[in-house]
Amino acid sequence: MKLVLIYLGVCLGVFLEGEMVMLSSVIAARQGYLQLWLVVPLGMLGTFISDCFYFFLGRKKGKKWIEKRPKLKKRAGYIHAKIERYPLLIFILYRFAYGLRTLAPIVIGTSETKASRFLLFSSRSILLWAVVYTTLGYAFGEIIKKYLNEIQHVEYYVIGGLIIVGLTIAANYYLKPKIRLRKSITS
């Protein structure tokens, strides 16, 4: 039962996060903790469900959502033009472009692209995505394992550094407008 939940977690994790969960799962399979022949199709399924969910969300609510955001509206128009001209290329590129994994299917859902065409191109690009990430995870899994013990003591410094950077950015973001406001009031 525990193993079934882990494999369902792979599918759900890829649905929510994508690449990092897929890579982690493949590395775990490389180390013998999971079965690769289950990880890959479940990762593909999670990605396919994610694409379908966001595509049909785009069909139902995407146009209203995009209309409320002028910058996004301009980008969506650009994406629509590219979809008509290079559909397969767009479907492949968005899968590998950081930050577009969720947004692109929504925008594609607002286009004139038929659902059957979307599903066909999406499944092709998912297959390519799975091959790339499975290969990367499997190839680099051994390297990661080898160096993990050596860099394990460094993780506390990295986490601490990331927390400091995050707090600095947050403080800068939240305090800067207040400082400007105070200067304009006192001037």
Structure, explained:
It is a single chain. With 187 residues, the chain is an all-alpha fold. It has helices at residues 2-16, 19-30, 36-67, 70-85, 87-96, 103-109, 115-151, 155-186. The protein is globular, with a radius of gyration of 21 Å. The relative contact order is 0.11. The mean pLDDT is 81.
Count all strands and give the number.
0
How far do the termini sit from each other? 68 Å
Mean pLDDT across all residues, rounded?
81
Kindly state the percentage of residues in helix.
Answer: over 70%
Task: Please outline the major beta sheet.
Answer: none
Count of helical regions: 8
Short note summarizing the structure:
By secondary structure, the chain is an all-alpha fold.
Annotate the secondary structure layout:
Elements: H1 2-16, H2 19-30, H3 36-67, H4 70-85, H5 87-96, H6 103-109, H7 115-151, H8 155-186
Helix pairs in contact: 1-3, 2-3, 2-7, 3-6, 3-7, 4-5, 5-7
